[in-house]
Design brief:
By secondary structure, this protein is of the alpha/beta class. It has a single domain, classed as NAD(P)-binding Rossmann-like Domain (Rossmann fold), CATH 3.40.50. It is built from eight helices and nine strands. The strands form two sheets. It has a seven-stranded parallel beta sheet, sandwiched between helices. Helix 1 packs across helix 8, helix 3 runs parallel beside helix 4 and helix 4 runs parallel beside helix 5. The chain is globular and about 45 Å long. It starts with a strand and ends in a 5-residue tail after the last strand. It comes from Amycolatopsis carbonis. InterPro entries: NAD(P)-bd_dom_sf, SDR_DHRS6-like, SDR_fam. Keywords: Oxidoreductase.
């Protein structure tokens, strides 16, 4: 994959960062975006092989300008999300859910549309969704709607944009900083409970899911596919 360029939108932490590192190992020239300057500064020190850019995936003008600066892009990975969207439907804050849609659903579509003119004819687009799109977990109606909407777009996009390939990777519970707001003891107990019912008997790491993302981004015969990376939960 030498002389190939990847852009990871939302690549300063978690699955996005793990994917950026693995694409770099595969020989890609990797660019990534993040909204926070501190994380980008930290990455410049820890991962000098990655090129960071401060940009919001929901800002069409900023993403288009960035893509123009990068030039030809062979792999676009969109790993944008927020921390909102959970809650029982009876008292779900719909204004909060609208913000959650902005942070993930609309940010994904905005990024794709903005970067599209700079994608190579045989490029790939890989979205990072979530298992909530297909499971019936209480309290996840809002998240299911967001991720379900993205996954429903995969096949139409793959057909419309062909030969550009479009896929999604749908992880289950992943041990990332997303869970940092939970007390350590509560988080550990939850992970243990989840692992006990998974066929794999383990909660995924960001690296585990990133391997699936890299496969979807680089395998030339895979398109229109939602690749489940959920430990068998689905």
């Amino acid at each position: 994959m030498s002389n190939s360029t990847a852009l990871v939108a939302g690549g300063t932490s978690g699955i996005g960062l793990a994917t950026a590192r693995k694409l770099r190992e595969r020989g890609f020239d990797v660019h990534l975006t993040g909204r926070g300057k501190k994380r980008l500064d930290d990455l410049a020190a820890s991962d000098p092989g990655l090129t960071g850019h401060q940009a919001d995936g929901g800002d069409a003008a900023a993403m288009a300008a960035l893509a123009e600066t990068i030039g030809r892009i062979d792999a676009l990975v969109v790993s944008l999300s927020g921390s909102e969207g959970m809650g029982p439907i009876a008292d779900l804050d719909l204004e909060m859910l609208r913000r959650a849609f902005d942070a993930k659903f609309w940010a994904h579509l905005t990024t794709i549309q903005a970067v599209l003119p700079r994608l190579a004819p045989t490029a790939s687009i890989t979205l990072v969704t979530a298992i909530t799109a297909r499971t019936g977990m209480p309290g996840t109606t809002g998240l299911a709607a967001i991720n379900g909407a993205l996954e429903a777009a995969v096949k139409p996009l793959a057909t419309e944009l062909a030969p550009i390939r479009v896929n999604a990777v749908s992880p289950g519970v992943v041990d990332t900083a997303w869970w940092s707001g939970f007390p350590a003891e509560q988080r550990a107990a939850h992970f243990a409970q989840v692992a006990s019912v998974l066929p794999t008997r383990q909660v995924a790491s960001a690296d585990d899911v990133a391997e699936a993302v890299v496969f979807a981004a680089t395998n030339r015969t895979t398109t229109g596919t939602v690749l489940e990376s959920d430990g068998g939960r689905g």
